């Protein structure tokens, strides 16, 4: 057992040094101080550098889990996305996903979108996740990445029917180094919600998942902030600020509300393994995209 621990530490150090298996979730890094006051949403920005946790090379094997329906999500509020050439009774969705390392494919995230692509082969799911980003950084590039403003002639954006937004953990664990508060997180998310809906895009807001096992940055204060922002996100559907909410906080926990279920977590207890991504993808599919083409 001691030999295994030493080997795991060496592998983790190598991954951090070479970036080969880095999940891209960066928290409390000094380079974020410049991001305290972002420009308006229409201003593009390059992703900032971050100090990141090393992703283990492989998760332990877990038993399979049956598909789970998402608590609190509603399919009817997400609107329609029809295409003239779609099969009868089917819809062709064009979806953008904005997020951090949990969505960024380069950071081993975004596998929940892969499930949707498999289930909906004639729909489109574009991944705009960037590992290590706070939601103010997402907001800075939102107009460029999702709305195509300013337009790029050789890379026009499609007319997205839906937007999935998942973020906030990096902000909460950067509350001291980047002075990120709950009100700032909510303001940045609201700006993206408003900008998308102003273009006729249906917004699907995801709550933050539990991350209490991420001991390097998690503490009681940050746990309280996570719950508070998640409560705010849940209210956005009732207040008609978004079209649907998928509450993944209870979906990904089991037995301990603040912890990722071991069946769904990498050993760092903040990133999801393949089964965790499958659970989220299945929940999105069942609640919102089951009529896809």
Return residue spans where pLDDT drops below 50 for at least 5 consecutive residues: 1-22, 28-84
Q: Quick one: CATH superfamily?
A: SGNH hydrolase
What count of structural domains? 1
- Give the SSE string: HEHEHEHHEHEHH
* Rg, Å, rounded: 18 Å
What gap, in angstroms, lies between the N and C termini? 49 Å
SS elements, strand count: 5
Mean pLDDT rating? 79
> What is the 3D form?
globular
Which structural class do you get from the secondary structure elements?
Answer: alpha/beta
Strand content: 5-15%
Taking the sheet with the most strands, its summary is: 5 strands, parallel
* Number of continuous helical runs: 8
Question: What is the strand arrangement across the widest sheet?
Answer: 2-1-3-4-5
Question: Top keywords for this entry?
Answer:
single chain; 293 residues; alpha/beta; Rossmann fold; 5-stranded parallel sheet; 8 helices; disordered N terminus
């Amino acid at each position: 057992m001691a030999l295994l621990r030493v080997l795991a530490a060496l592998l983790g150090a190598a991954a951090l040094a070479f970036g080969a298996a880095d999940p891209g979730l960066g928290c409390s890094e000094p380079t974020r101080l410049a991001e305290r006051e972002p420009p308006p949403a229409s201003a593009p920005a390059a992703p900032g550098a971050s100090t990141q946790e090393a992703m283990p090379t492989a998760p332990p094997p877990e038993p399979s889990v049956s598909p789970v329906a998402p608590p609190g999500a509603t399919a009817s509020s997400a609107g329609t996305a029809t295409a003239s050439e779609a099969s009868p009774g089917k819809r062709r969705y064009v979806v953008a996903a904005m997020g951090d390392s949990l969505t960024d494919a380069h950071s081993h995230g975004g596998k929940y979108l892969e499930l949707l692509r498999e289930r909906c082969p004639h729909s489109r799911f574009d991944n705009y996740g960037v590992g290590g980003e706070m939601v103010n950084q997402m907001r800075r590039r939102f107009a460029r990445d999702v709305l195509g403003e300013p337009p790029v002639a050789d890379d026009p954006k499609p007319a997205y029917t839906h937007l999935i937004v998942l973020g906030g953990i990096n902000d909460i664990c950067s509350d001291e180094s980047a002075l990120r508060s709950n009100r700032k997180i909510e303001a940045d998310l609201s700006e993206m919600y408003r900008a998308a809906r102003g273009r006729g895009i249906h917004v699907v807001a995801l709550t933050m998942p539990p991350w209490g096992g991420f001991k390097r940055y998690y503490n009681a204060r940050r746990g309280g902030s996570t719950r508070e922002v998640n409560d705010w996100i849940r209210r956005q559907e009732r207040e008609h600020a978004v079209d649907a909410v998928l509450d993944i906080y209870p979906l990904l926990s089991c037995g301990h509300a603040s912890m990722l279920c071991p069946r769904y977590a990498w050993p760092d207890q903040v990133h999801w393994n393949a089964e965790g991504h499958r659970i989220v993808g299945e929940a999105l599919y069942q609640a919102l995209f089951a009529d896809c083409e």
